[in-house]
Amino acid sequence: MIEAARWAGSILAIADLGTRIEAGHAGLIDEAQLVIGVARPTVESLPDLYRLSEWLRRASAGNRLAFVVNQCTDAAEAASIAREVGAPLLAALPVSPAAAAAGERGEPGWPHDAAFAAGLERLATALWPLGTAGAERPGLARLALHRLGGMLRRSG
Question: Considering the chain, what is the average pLDDT of its residues?
């Protein structure tokens, strides 16, 4: 997967490893500059952040870990876990019925919910630090989201 992305000239490859980290994922994680753990801030899902952190530390990749919480009404517990394991919490994406409905239609959800768009913009700005400062950064993040949304609509 990584070689195919390089061959195509891509600077970004995303792999969804699911909820179970397995030995076969080690090659992808070795190549990754950033590993993002995504979880819902629920009693059932938050322990996954600890498990991912421990697995990455054993793989000597713990310093490349960051978190995102999704469908979030309160990010306090996730932020606490992130501080505890030494990984940044990049964004907390709120619960968004409008985004969920858009997703079911195969559309990006961020144009339909301002709070959800703001969370994605924070995430995009963290992931796309294009060397700009101040007021320009959110505009660049919005541009990146717009282009990503266009790519998602074309892909299927």
Answer: 77
Q: Which two tokens stand for residue 13?
A: 């490859």
Judged against a pLDDT cut of 90, whether residue 83 lies above it is answered with yes
Does an H or E element contain 25, and which? none
Helix and strand totals (H; E) in the chain: 7, 3
Asked if 90 and 124 touch (Cβ cutoff 8 Å), the reply is no
Cα(111)–Cα(152) distance, rounded to whole angstroms?
Answer: 14
Segment 4-32, tens digit of pLDDT: 767 776 666 667 667 677 777 777 777 77
| CA-to-CA dists, residue 152 to 13, 73, 108, angstroms | 14, 26, 8
Q: Range with the lowest mean pLDDT among 93-102, 103-112, 120-129?
A: 120-129
Q: What does the alpha-carbon distance between residue 87 and residue 45 come to, in Å, rounded to a whole number?
A: 17
> Which tokens is 80 given?
């606490």
CB 112 within 8 A of CB 99: yes
DSSP structure class, residue 72: E
- What φ, ψ does residue 48 adopt, rounded to 5°? -60, -30
Enter the pTM of the model.
0.70
